[in-house]
Amino acid sequence: MKKLTNLRFLVVSLVLVCNSLLFAQKNYELVSPVREMKNKLRSDELKSKFGKIKPSQTLSTTNQSDYDVKSYEIAIEVFPTTETIKGSVKTTFAIVNATTTITYDFANSLTVDSVKVGNLTTAFTHLNDLLNIPIGANDTTTTVFYHGAPSASGFQGFDFSTHGPNNMPLITTLSEPFGARSWWPCKDHPIDKALVKMAITCPDNLTGVSNGLLVSQTNNGNGTKTFFYEHGYLITTYLVELNVSDYSHFTYYYHYTATDSMPLEFYAYPEKLTQAMEDFNATDDVLTAISQRFGEYRFLNEHYGMVMFPWGGAMEHQTLTSYGNNLVLGNHVYDWINAHEAGHQWFGDYVSPKSWDHIWLNEGFATYIEAIWAEYNGGKTAYLNDIMAEMFNSFYNVTVIADSLDPFGNTNAIYNKGGIVLHMLRGVMGDTNFFAALNNYLNQYAYGNAETENLMDFCSAEYGTSLAWFFNQWIYETGVLSYQHAWDWNPATQTLKIALKQNGNKFYKMPVQFKFSGSGIDTVLTFMNDNYLLNTFQIFTTTLPFTPTTMVVDPENWILANKQPTSFPAGIEEPNKNPVTKTFELHSNFPNPFNPTTTIPFELKNNSKVTLKIYNQLGQEIAKVFEGTLAPNFYNFVWDGVNQNGEPVSSGTYFYKLNVGGEVQTKSMTLLK
User: Fold this and answer.
1) In what order do the strands lie in the sheet with 304-309?
2) Rounded to an integer, what is the distance from CA 602 to the centroid of its chain?
3) Number of C-beta neighbours around residue 40 at 10 A
4) What is the spatial distance between Cα 265 and Cα 257, in angstroms, rounded to a whole number?
5) CB neighbours of residue 412 within 10 Å
6) Which of 380, 377, 350 is closest to 365 using CA atoms?
7) Which of 515, 407, 373, 437 is nearest to 50 (CA)?
8) 617/232 Cα distance (integer angstroms)
9) What is the CATH number of domain 482-565?
10) Could you give the CA distance from residue 112 to residue 117 in angstroms, rounded to a whole number?
11) Which among 612, 585, 608, 488 has a CA at the least distance from the CA of 544?
């Protein structure tokens, strides 16, 4: 791969180091610098994308479905000294259902000076962040003139700040999900895409940047310049952006064939130009990696690029991602964010969600594309290890479908679980069918909108039968999957029996792989776990041409689940079965290392008096996790990393001891802070 430095593999390398311990365990949860880094940036992006928006502001009025926006022509002048703006927006629309009123979402913090319908000035009302304009049956345009100090909710909306040693003005926007209305009147809903032109007027020592192509710029002779942008592709309101500062501009190229290329346009703070030129030179490879899997970049007639802005994380504005200045270090450590945001150009921008309930179609895919980027660089091993870094089981007892009034309320669901669901779907369908289905989905809804059911239909078509069972259990429902497994070998008949049982309150139908090794031979068998019975073993029987000595369940982690060995079930075992647990078995805690909590699993075969305690390296008792009598079953107890007094303990090695009827088993674990 061209232009790569070793530091670009830092994330993958960290995962590989941590993961070398994981494959020796039965559970696949990961606490590592990678996880902590990703969670921090997810949190920053959450803050950026969802501020203190009143619920009433997120609801479109009834009559907004009566018209379809065709285009917006936005003209905004920014005044950095007073932190105010003056603007006009001409909207062209088509009436879908008879209506006498056009209603735009528009914040009351801005003052509407006048409104035209066609060429005639008209009356209007501006209340509760809604702008109502009376129209006639044949009207097709409105123009709104306004001014004021735009407000931001949390990090969302229109922001005035400064950067650099000289405190240069910096004006930026971030409108996802409901912030476009804070700086321009629009139908602020993802379903209604339109063409957009943008004219930005600013002090002449600054540069205005927006989506699409810079078609011209004019020196106004009064200390200001106007930058004219035109975007030739349909775009939804939350992806429209405005940026103004003393940007340093540079251009690279995306080489989509041996002889053709597209410009990659970048806008950096001058004080970070050197670091930006290094970090952003990965973008050619990023687009190549994504295009190989999901088809060519979809805005090829214009460009792609990034503009630095002051907020945490990044935002996938169409054709020009806003990229947090804290991510520009000049060492490629955040190339995975570059891949994440570029991936949105396919999933989120090219095909946008019909409503915010389905935001996982944006963020789950972009998170999954982080693993595609790892796969492009380091092959299947790097891909699987990136997936492992996202497997946080304790966060996954949630539905992936979001709350439309708070679409970023659970980032672990829409980002991490959404990405893992796609990984599992790939495992179920196989590479050929999986990528064919996703490309068909993208092509069908090109420059439009889709929802989860649309994706399911295309996946089912390639799979050959309905995948509703998969989408229902992993997307729409809650629950945690936990397997217990055992196996038995009869050398006389060379018969292999596998026993698999699910515990919990919901059954998951899934194909499960079992890897058997022995005599220098490996084989992977796949069986469908579909008996739909909880706490009941499903038995799979086959023959092997060699004597197996080990079994690994789901060796490539295609399933988001806890996986624990147990004894082969009584009544169907053969004389030469594997050794079984006699009275109890203490299993390895997960995750390990951990911070701040870990789960300690154990299995009881009889009614027993049980004590589970935590000790430090000096043998001193730190905490009592459980004491009492338990029935035969498989148990998971959680230690939250605090002592008997409820105080957090320090990093280090600790021991957990399970005393069952006077017999003791002990294992160690590591707390990392």
Assistant:
1) 248-254, 262-268, 304-309, 320-324, 314-315
2) 33
3) 12
4) 19
5) 16
6) 350
7) 407
8) 66
9) 2.60.40.1840
10) 14
11) 488
**In the chain, what percentage of residues exceed pLDDT 90?**
71
pLDDT, tens only, 301-338 = 999 999 999 988 899 999 999 999 999 999 999 999 99
Residue 661: pLDDT band by 50, 70, 90 thresholds?
A: confident
* Six token digits for residue 22: 């994981």
Q: Do residues 358 and 347 lie in contact, with contact meaning Cβ atoms separated by under 8 Å? A: no
Please indicate whether residue 404 or residue 206 has the higher confidence score (pLDDT).
206
Of 624, 424, 629, 408, nearest to 509 by C-alpha is: 424
Tally Cβ neighbours within 10 Å of residue 37.
18
CATH 2.60.40.1840 location in the chain: 482-565
Q: Where residue 14 falls among pLDDT bands split at 50, 70, 90? A: very low
Specify whether the CB–CB gap between 516 and 525 falls below 8 A: yes
Cβ distance 320 to 211 under 8 Å?
Answer: yes
What is the rounded CA–CA span in Å between residue 292 and residue 645? Answer: 56
Token pair in block for residue 590: 């997960």
Q: Domain 584-671 - what CATH class?
A: mainly beta
- For the structural domain made of 61-246, what CATH number should be given? 2.60.40.1730
Sign of CA dihedral 353, 357, 359, 360: negative
Residue corresponding to tokens 């708070």: 406
Length of the chain, in residues: 673
Do 484 and 501 contact (CB within 8 A), yes or no?
yes
Cβ neighbours of residue 458 closer than 8 Å, sequence gap 6 or more: 437, 438, 440, 441, 444
Domain with CATH 2.60.40.1730 in the chain: 61-246
Looking at the chain, the domain(s) classified CATH 1.10.390.10 span: 6-52+349-476
| Cα separation, 207 vs 199, whole angstroms | 12
Cβ neighbours of residue 570 under 8 Å, at least 6 residues apart?
Answer: none
Contact by Cβ (8 Å): 549, 518: yes
Q: How many CB atoms are located within 10 Å of the residue 519 CB?
A: 10
Compute the distance between CA of residue 90 and CA of residue 119 in angstroms, rounded to an integer: 11
HSE (side-chain half, CA atoms, 13 Å) at 618: 3
pLDDT-based confidence at residue 4 (cuts at 50, 70, 90):
very low
Average of per-residue pLDDT values in the chain: 88
Q: How far is the C-alpha of 642 from the C-alpha of 619, rounded, in Å? A: 16
Mean pLDDT of 482-492: 95
CATH 2.60.40.4070: which residues of the chain?
Answer: 584-671
The Cα 183–Cα 105 span in angstroms is 10
Q: Cβ distance 490 to 576 under 8 Å? A: yes
Which of 454-486 are b and which e, b meaning 16 or more Cβ less than 10 Å from the residue's Cβ?
bbbbbbbbbbeeebeebbebbbeeebbbbbbbb
Backbone φ, ψ for residue 570 (5° rounding): -65, 150
pLDDT band at residue 38 under the 50/70/90 scheme: low
How large is the average pLDDT for residues 502-527?
Answer: 92
Distance CA 217, CA 552 (A): 63
- Predicted confidence at residue 505, as pLDDT, reads 82
> What is the Cα 177 distance to its own chain's centre?
15
Mean pLDDT (whole number) for 26-47 = 48
CATH superfamily of 6-52+349-476: Neutral Protease Domain 2 (1.10.390.10)
CA 244/CA 120 separation, integer angstroms? 33
Per-residue model confidence (pLDDT) at position 61: 63
> Smallest Cα–Cα separation from 85: which of 107, 104, 70?
107
Residue 656: how many other CB atoms lie within 10 Å: 23
Q: Where are the alpha helices (DSSP H) in 522-640?
A: none
pLDDT in tens, 399-420: 999 888 888 888 889 999 999 9
